[in-house]
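Title: Comparing notes on inverse folding

I've been comparing how different people in this forum approach sequence design from structure. To keep things fair, I'm posting one structure and asking everyone to reply with a full sequence. Here's the target:
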């Protein structure tokens, strides 16, 4: 097949881009950023780079649009024709392009959110907390709905799971570009100098191009803590109280801001970063202490700045707004503790009592951060008490708007974050506990591992004393397989404290991960609640209990279909047990970003949960690229929190619970057929002789372990001869890179075919939220897969039987998903998602072809020869690029 002329290529690319139904503003952004990148490639790349990038781009677009074998072969031939050095540059160029396209999409989302905020409330999104409240009130009445709103809890937990393929330096460059793109918008709106904005964007894109895309070494756990802190500094500290404010504005209307809010803080932020030591030898007790100290430093600085800003603006005169007796007493108390500063502030603000008080409170916060015991607050509750004295005084003197304005947002921040910012959680494997207890019971000298395990409990006790009980105290037991596994934590805590030490207050949380563990969970819980230490903690919390469910390992264990059904059943049984035991249950969902690890839209997943499994409380892990996608931009973070909180509120509505209950009963027989048939199909693949080394051959699984994504190893210790100890993240990541996405869909086609009745399945898709969520997620997973590229990866292994099995199931699943959803192509009922996937696919194909050539070279090399570092680098560059293009990793 001949290569297109320049005119034909321009026409082809133009027709392809025009065929994507992209909003005009976003189309303009993509063109602008793409043209600027092209200019940089001409200026900063080696001679001919831009032309080679365009050749490959045009070829992959042509192959995508006409789907002929000849067109695809020509694109592959172009990718193979490059020298390794040129392929390296081309991979970097496509990766940079994806970063810019992702930025343009995010920018468009922010535009849409701003436009929506500018419309009347009745025209706004129906999936907001305010809209959910109205719907809930229609079912259960205003008072009951308000009570549920005030008890609402959304608890995201940030983890350091290695799924963010971008370097932090790259992320920061993209964030600066985002600000410049906003300035460019303003220049266009105001008729200002857009050339100046474009010049600065060129400078930043050149910086992005010249920044090494791969980390030179793995980040330390402390580096991971600081990366998460950047999200707090840039968005969450201000975004969360703004969510509360928006909900209160919507519910109270014109009265909002002039009287006490009806909204109570409903977000709590958790963190495993610096606390999760399951399989990560680099997370030590010392690291856990440092992680908590870093988080406290960040939140106290934030509170200092906010208090100082509010204080400087609170210039209300004592004549117009006299302070209450309690406020006067507070001033005297603050003054006596900090006389010199009080005198200076009083001189600058002679008749401004509120300004005086807030500025001295700010100084106490500085002392708290600097650990000046004479002046510091002992705990956040003392700060809240002082702020409420000021607030009450303002209300009493008629300044309600000042009381419930910025000061209220500061109070919300303290209530949400305390002095600790994130509630740090510890996680450890149950087998480690058993091993350490065996050493302790034997009375021999302890190993380094045993000493470290005991020191963790001492670290938790220290953190609780320094930062308050909310700072740490949740202890998660991975692979919980018996009640004894949970009781062991209390035994170890007692050992660590000794006869004279302080035993930390612990909420021990079981993590049920495998298919067998999920089935055993209700029995284990029924047994552990009678354990003395566990029962005593349960009573002291008002019978509150958290139970964590693992999505990743269960999916790797039995396949995505059976795992989803097992998770639903486990939640239903655990929730029913908790109801009978009068336990306030919070289910903690260990979800990843990829669809094979429980990923997908959180709000639809919440609404598909079993009755009483939510009850106004939802906790989940947020990992890697998901953290920055959901919380990296303030507007998007607020929208995400609002959507999830709305789903939490509605999940326990009588109508939603009845719908899920009725559907589960009606389609129980179908669920049983799908479970058995999908599991059998999954086992026929993963339990086939030689599957593990074949998997490592046909995907870049081993090479992914070389990427410096995170501090944690990719495996718990076994070789590629066994999948049992392979972590779920590289399992999912490797299939994603191979454009197969097997972990997200394998077995569903067989399951739907086993049911066989298309009409019944279409009805179930409409009526059964669990099935609808599963099929919609699989549709997304398959849409990002590519059969032609998958075929080439599968050909790397000398097992036609396994390759044929994968491709047959992919084709079967695609066909049944299209039939059940009633369309003619994948995502036909999700046009926005379909557009995003189609727009990227040819460009991802280009990177996949570059990755394939590198992977082939590495696989074909003589085993005794040294590793070709140039091909290995090309492969790793393409991994980063494909992750950016598909917008997920593990």
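Reply #1:
Here's my take.
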């Amino acid at each position: 097949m001949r290569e297109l002329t320049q005119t034909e290529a321009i026409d082809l690319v133009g027709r392809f881009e025009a065929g994507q139904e992209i909003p005009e503003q976003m189309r303009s952004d993509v063109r602008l950023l793409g043209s600027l990148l092209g200019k940089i490639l001409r200026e900063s790349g080696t001679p001919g780079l831009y032309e080679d990038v365009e050749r490959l781009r045009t070829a992959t677009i042509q192959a995508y649009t006409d789907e002929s074998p000849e067109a695809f072969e020509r694109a592959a031939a172009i990718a193979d024709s490059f020298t390794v050095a040129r392929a390296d540059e081309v991979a970097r160029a496509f990766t940079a392009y994806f970063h810019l396209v992702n930025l343009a999409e995010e920018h468009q989302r922010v535009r849409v959110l701003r436009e929506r905020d500018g419309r009347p409330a009745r025209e706004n999104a129906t999936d907001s907390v305010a809209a959910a409240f109205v719907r809930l009130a229609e079912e259960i009445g205003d008072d009951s709905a308000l009570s549920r709103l005030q008890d609402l809890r959304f608890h995201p937990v940030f983890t350091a799971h290695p799924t963010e393929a971008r370097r932090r330096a790259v992320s920061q460059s993209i964030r600066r570009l985002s600000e410049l793109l906003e300035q460019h918008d303003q220049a266009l709106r105001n008729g200002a100098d857009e050339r100046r904005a474009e010049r600065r964007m060129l400078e930043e894109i050149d910086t992005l191009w010249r920044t090494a895309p791969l980390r030179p070494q793995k980040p330390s756990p402390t580096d991971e803590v600081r990366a998460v802190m950047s999200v707090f500094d840039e968005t969450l500290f201000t975004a969360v109280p703004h969510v509360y404010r928006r909900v209160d504005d919507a519910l109270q209307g014109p009265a909002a801001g002039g009287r006490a809010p009806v909204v109570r803080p409903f977000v709590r932020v958790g963190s495993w970063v610096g606390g999760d030591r399951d399989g990560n030898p680099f997370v030590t007790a010392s690291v856990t202490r440092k992680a908590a100290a870093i988080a406290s430093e960040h939140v106290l600085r934030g509170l200092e700045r906010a208090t100082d800003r509010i204080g400087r603006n609170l210039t209300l005169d004592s004549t117009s707004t006299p302070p209450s007796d309690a406020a006067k007493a507070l001033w005297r108390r603050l003054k006596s503790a900090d006389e010199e500063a009080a005198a200076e502030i009083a001189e600058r603000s002679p008749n401004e009592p509120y300004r005086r008080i807030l500025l001295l409170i700010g100084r106490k916060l500085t002392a708290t951060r600097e650990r000046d015991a004479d002046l510091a607050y002992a705990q956040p509750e003392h700060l809240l008490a002082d702020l409420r004295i000021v607030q009450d005084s303002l209300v009493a003197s008629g300044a309600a708007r000042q009381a419930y304005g910025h000061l209220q947002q500061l109070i919300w921040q303290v209530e949400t974050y305390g002095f600790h910012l994130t509630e740090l959680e510890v996680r450890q494997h149950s087998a480690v506990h058993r091993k350490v207890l065996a050493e302790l019971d034997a009375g021999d000298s302890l190993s380094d591992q045993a000493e470290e395990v005991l020191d963790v409990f001492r670290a938790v006790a220290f953190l609780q004393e320094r930062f308050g009980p909310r700072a740490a105290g949740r202890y998660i037991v991975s692979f919980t397989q018996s009640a004894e596994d949970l009781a062991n934590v209390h035994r170890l805590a007692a050992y660590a404290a000794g006869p004279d030490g302080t035993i930390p207050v612990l909420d021990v949380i079981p993590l049920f991960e495998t298919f067998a563990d999920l089935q055993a969970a209700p029995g284990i819980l029924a047994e552990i609640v009678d354990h003395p230490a566990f029962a005593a903690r349960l009573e002291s919390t008002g019978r509150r209990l958290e139970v964590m469910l693992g999505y990743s390992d269960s999916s790797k264990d039995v396949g995505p279909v059976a795992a989803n059904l097992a998770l639903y059943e486990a939640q239903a049984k655990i929730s029913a047990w908790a109801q009978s035991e009068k336990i306030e249950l919070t289910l903690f969902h260990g979800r990843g970003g990829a669809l094979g690890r429980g990923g997908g839209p959180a709000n639809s997943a919440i609404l598909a949960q079993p009755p009483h499994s939510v009850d106004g409380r939802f906790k989940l892990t947020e990992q890697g690229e998901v953290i920055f996608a959901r919380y990296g931009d303030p507007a998007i973070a607020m929208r995400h929190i609002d959507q999830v909180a709305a789903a939490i509120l509605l999940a326990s509505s009588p109508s939603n619970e009845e719908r899920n209950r009725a559907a589960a009963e009606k389609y129980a027989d179908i669920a049983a057929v799908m479970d058995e048939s999908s599991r059998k199909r999954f086992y026929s693949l993963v339990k086939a002789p030689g599957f593990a080394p074949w998997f490592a051959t046909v995907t870049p699984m081993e090479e992914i372990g070389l990427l410096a994504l995170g501090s944690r190893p990719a495996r718990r210790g076994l070789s590629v001869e066994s999948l049992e100890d392979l972590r779920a993240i590289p399992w999912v990541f490797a299939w994603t890179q191979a454009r197969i996405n097997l972990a997200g869909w394998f077995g569903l086609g067989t399951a739907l075919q086993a049911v066989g009745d298309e009409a019944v399945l279409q009805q179930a898709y409409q009526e059964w939220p669990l099935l609808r969520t599963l099929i919609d997620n699989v549709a997304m997973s398959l849409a990002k897969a590519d059969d032609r590229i998958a075929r080439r990866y599968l050909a790397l292994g000398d097992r036609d039987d396994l390759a044929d099995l994968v491709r047959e199931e992919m084709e079967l699943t695609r066909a049944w998903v299209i039939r059940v959803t009633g369309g003619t192509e994948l995502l036909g009922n999700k046009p926005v998602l379909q557009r995003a996937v189609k727009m990227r696919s040819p460009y991802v194909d280009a990177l996949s072809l570059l990755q394939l050539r590198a992977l082939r070279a590495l696989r074909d090399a003589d085993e005794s020869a040294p590793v070709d570092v140039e091909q290995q680098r090309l492969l790793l560059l393409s991994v980063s690029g494909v992750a950016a293009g598909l917008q997920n990793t593990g």
